[in-house]
Amino acid sequence: MRAVLMAGGSGTRLRPLTCDLPKPMVPVLNRPIAEHIINLLKRNNITEVIATLYYLPDVMRDYFQDGSDFGVQMTYAVEEEQPLGTAGCVKNIQQWLDETFITISGDAITDFDLQAAIAFHRAKKSKATLILTRVPNPVEFGVVIADEDGRIKRFLEKPSLSEIFSDTVNTGTYILEPEVLKYLPENQESDFSKDLFPLLLEKGEPMYGYIAEGYWCDVGHLEAYREAQYDGLDKKVKLDFSYEERSAGIWIGNNTYIDPSVSIEAPVLIGDNCRIGARVRIEAGTVIGDNVTIGADADLKRPIIWNGATVGDEAHLRACTISRGTRMDRRSQALEGSVVGALSIVGEEAQIAPGVRVWPSKRIESGAILNINLIWGNTAQRNLFGQRGVSGLANIDLTPEFVVKLGASYGSTLKLGSTVLVSRDQRSVSRMIGRAMIAGLMSAGVNVQNLEATAIPIARTMMNNSIDVSGGIHIRLEPNRPDYLLIEFFDRQGISISKSKEKKIEGAYFKEDLRRVAIQEIGTVSYPSGIMEIYSRTFEKYLNIAAVRNSSSKIVIDYVYGVSGAILPQLLAKFGCDAVVLNASLRETAISAAEKEMLLDQLGHVVEALQANFGVQVSANGEQFILVDEAGLPIRGEALTALMVNTIFTANPRSTVVVPVNASSAVEEIARRHDGNVIRTKVNPTALMETSQDNLNVVLGGNSDMGFIFPHLHPGFDAMFSIAKLIEMLTIQERSLADIRNDLPHVCHKFCSIRCPWKVKGSLMRHLVETHPTENLELIDGVKIINPQNDNWILILPDAGEPLVHIYANSGDRHWVEEQLAQYRQRVQNFIDREQN
């Protein structure tokens, strides 16, 4: 059998280690990862290896040559013009693959029994067998679900935190029959997980998952790289060592001198031709390459030191990585998680702070304290984007220097000369961050239309009405965290950008692959005029003006000191409505939850006193709202969602609404009364926006937690239009809010939250999937256990941003809800406790 070793990766998240090395050639225990893979193939009697190369191909060819020195026969296929992806590179060599073959990733450390997997493949007469394993945190991998026989039923490539439905993941090792390659296009980029496997699933081809026992580590980032070394030393994985084990857990190479006063704690690996000076302390987990010199009194606590490095007297190295040929001078320090690139020089008593990365061939002056990446940037992070965008503590996490680089990263993913709309709320911190963002965009040759302080619905409307705009950015305080800023990115339609676009921006940021343009190409800034007129025209286009004008409504609007400009009263006054405005002045800091409740109570009293039709509290910079009926009682949560759905279905029978998977089943009950349809989506804003836009018959999307979408107006949430539309529908239907509330279905909908460690979330979801019948499961988002005969359901939903799991229970029977909520809360808690013990 032949093996295809996919070794084209550039390993951007491992930089600076991969600046001059392809990822498969990064050493683990002083041998390249690719050599460990070849040793694994040899142990499984696979000695014909075809390596597909793209990034720095000569490094691997020069090391392995024809493979004879390593006991295999090596052949190479180089993707000359462009990367072809995991499947495309295999399609490119199909003339060499005329029988069953195995493909294996060049960037993982594993000791799986491949022969057992091959036997499984043949026994099942499979066309494609994916070798799977179980991991505590599956977010960065492809999640797979197979039936009891191993046949694959579903998989999801790199899910978000809320999408996890199993902890069984794809390891990137596949056993394939050559005929599956006919499904792939010639000379085009294609991916196994995104392109080939979904197609095989659709065509009904036999595709199986083999859950392998043993060790597997995807060396995808710097922390995993260090962990793979430590696991190898602890013999958690079967690897071939290059050196003799002189005593238990201590491997030492040839011609290495170690001073008798040196203290060594096993396990430790020291390479050939090393010199270790007097009184050096080497703690367990340390890996020292070939030709390394360590000065007297150095203190080594689990560093990874590559070939040819020099460590001076009294230097302190703490769980760091020191690359090839680097010099750490006397009393220098490299602390936890730091990485020093090849051929760099760290001066005397200089200190590299935890997590800091130094690119190759840099010099750090004596006594310097380096706490940002060199060349530039700040502390390395693995993800920039959360559930709704980039968020962090204002002026602590989201600083101007960070945002300038973020803006340049976003701009670098757009074409030169593109235009981006930038808007914000009215707070000073948002103005500061907005200016930094604009500077970063301009530096990448992107033009900016600065809308300045603008409510989000107006910004989205401008996106929808601008022909030459490539994207948009909005900066505001987070609605539920008063000291946090939120930066949201929109596509050209005004929809929050996709995960793939987020990954591109992250890639540019972490690779520091930023476009620097000439002076004449630097972007420009313009300030569009007539913004209110454009929004007003769009607003009027989708509103029954006559109905609103005839309503003679009086409403009270509370802006809770937050929204950008009291736009709605101006529009309503234009249509003959009387709008009383409360708290429209701006506060620099967000109000507390308790104060917001107090203002809501105050709003109720004002509505009663003025005998207004209703009141509304607007928040989230014009996206969200809470209603107060004519009796001063608040309408929020699931009641508000049901009320909006009821009024819209009454006005538009046989239409469609879009709600998240955790919304109450009252939505379905109301839809049945009006012969309407309900589409459920994941619990995130992008999913709601995209689904609302993709289905022509949709008249409303969203829920009370995020706001409501009227897709013909613009793709986002809009509290202002929701209120005007409500006035229109109440007038035409001749109903009050109290009338509608009394007409709503009686559904009990409750939820609770449980703290759940990140590493347990995947196994919890898999456990729930495995312990419930398939016909009772919905896996739109989280795990939903349904009763097909009625609207009773339980939803277990992992939180996307916190170590939490939310449990929702829904039924017309309050007793059933209380009982099931208590039962599943205990069930989930017991599983978490078992996993942690």
UniProtKB/TrEMBL annotation:
Q: Which PROSITE patterns match?
A: HEXAPEP_TRANSFERASES
Where does the Nucleotidyl transferase domain lie?
3-231
The chain positions of domain Alpha-D-phosphohexomutase alpha/beta/alpha read 383-514, 535-632, 637-745
Citing just one GO molecular function, the answer is: transferase activity
The alphabetized UniProt keywords are:
Phosphoprotein, Repeat, Transferase
Highest taxon above the source species: Bacteria
Domain (Mannose-1-phosphate guanyltransferase C-terminal): give its ranges: 265-366
Q: Which is a Gene Ontology cellular component entry for this protein?
A: carboxysome
SUPFAM superfamilies named in the record: Nucleotide-diphospho-sugar transferases, Phosphoglucomutase, C-terminal domain, Phosphoglucomutase, first 3 domains, Trimeric LpxA-like enzymes
* Keyword flag Membrane: no
GO biological process terms, alphabetically, are: carbohydrate metabolic process
Q: Does the keyword S-adenosyl-L-methionine apply?
A: no
* Family the UniProt entry places it in: Belongs to the phosphohexose mutase family. Belongs to the transferase hexapeptide repeat family.
Cite the PANTHER family for this sequence. SUGAR-1-PHOSPHATE GUANYL TRANSFERASE (PTHR22572)
Please report the name of this protein according to its UniProt entry: Mannose-1-phosphate guanyltransferase
Species of the source: Waterburya agarophytonicola KI4
